[in-house]
Amino acid sequence: TSPQGRWSIVHRFQPEPSLRAVGAADELAASVAEQLLARYGVVFRDLVARENFAVPWRDVVRALRRMEARGTARGGRFVAGFIGEQYALPEAVEGLRRTRREERAGEIVRISAADPLNLAGIITPGARVPALHTNAVIFLDGLPIAVEEGKHLVVRPEAGDIDLRDVLGRARTSPRAAAHAL
Length: 182
Description:
Helix content: 25-40%
Strand order of the largest sheet: 4-5-6-7
Number of strands: 7
Largest sheet: 4 strands, antiparallel
């Protein structure tokens, strides 16, 4: 059968017989670690809880430790409130430092709830937002303040006394979410 639309069948990873099983598993774990760092910039266990990959977390952590030893990733405590090891790309660490020094600008961003950037309820306070294409999350300075569930707008308790009409007037779709919509 030929692939139709945006989707096609992806075959499971089958290491070549010439590769040692341990070497192939390490290589796959390293690929997953690199992919997670490229996607999020900072990686820790709670962040990837909803990810579904065939490599156990312990193998990914070993790959991240090797990356730290080579100097391609940094280990440390980058995100407060989470236990366990955390790893980050050097440029992500600098970006976090810059962001911490900046004043809140009132930036409003709207993303699809199906976007991997939907971390509401995972690393931010409040309940998770179901990853459905009809849902969207509205953030104010990185904090989820409202959820669009189909045609209904649900204000999150974190929003406080914010005027949602003003927020919705200024809301914009993230470039990444807009790319997914195309």
